[in-house]
Amino acid sequence: MANNSGSAVVEPPRFEPVGRRQARVALLMNSILTRLHRALLPGATLLALLAILQFLTYSGVLSARAFPLVTDVFAALIHEASTAEFWLAVGHTLSGWAIGLLIAIVLAVPLGIVLGSSRMLYRGSRTIIEFLRPVPSVALIPLAVLVLGIGLESKVFLVVFASFWPMLIQTIYGVQDTDPIATETARTFGLGCFETFWRVILPGTAPFIATGFRISSATALILAVTAELVIGSPGLGATIELARSSGDIATAYAMIMATGILGWLLNSGSMYFQRRVLHWHPSQRAGGGS
Prior knowledge:
The chain has 290 residues and is mainly alpha-helical. It is 78% helix and 0% strand. The chain contains eleven helices and no strands.
């Protein structure tokens, strides 16, 4: 930069105020500490619980026959995870879970949209829904075995029956929760039924459907493992029962732990999928979906 006499004038460097820099650093550190707290606290709690169980069994407070050492359970889990039979059992459980859940979604979501869109249809079917929904899926095991046998078909039937209802109810509530002003506005602007559904009703219902999917996913895994335990269908449940009946309690606990890990992975996957698909929703932008 030059002044009127033609000589160069050097502007002094611009420094960010010290207070503002300190505030930015403090905000960054607070964000890092919050993320670490969220990541480490569940793991630390789990490790503390496992350490307590290890101590109680080792000291004799808990019977080693019913509660084996945590280290023995982990050793059994590592051993089982190194065998092909373990992964075959995981595959059987996941196949029953996936097929049943997919059928439940295909049946429940369209039906929920139809029932939620018509108060008359919803009131007419509400008695049937409230009668069938509380029926425990386990109570249908004898009927499933009698009609479908002890193979994959029975497991899929139980999974479908159990996971159908959360998807149906959440879809109905999602459609009924759609803002009527938004629907009327769409009709005022000349949008047809399909466009109104695609642009207004479906986006408003999507978070409810996503919640129903998460609930149904967990329910489907529970029923898949339960069917394997009771019926004897191939999978992790049958492996748990085989280890229990043979007296290998450490392996039985290891398989139970494997089932819990599988459920955690499926739930984490569904949460990630929900955040990706519903990134536009306020609850996801605010971090409510994590």
